[in-house]
Hints:
By secondary structure, the protein is an alpha/beta fold. The protein is built from 3 helices and 4 strands, in the order E-H-E-E-E-H-H.
Amino acid sequence: KQYYGSHRTGNTDLNFVGSDLHRLNSDFMYNTTTVAAACARLKQAADQKGWLVLTFHDFTTSATASQGFTMPQAAFEGILACAATTPGLDVVTVRDGAAKLRCGSPP
């Protein structure tokens, strides 16, 4: 812990003030994740004043992807557009989000 300020897990849940910064919850975005499903999770985070960490691994310009962690570019762009327009949601880096949780204010 002396070398890093936070760490994410693969546990699907929101993070709140008081969450263990060395066990941050994170939602993996798979090739089967729909834009609608990701947008619903973003809205849930905004409504509950929680922090949702989305984890992406690989992208493709193809309309579909057969590899689990490879997301089509169009879906990624749709999720980003949703994040940018969801009321009450701030898009932040992990560093900034962890700092806000550490200081007692939700990201």
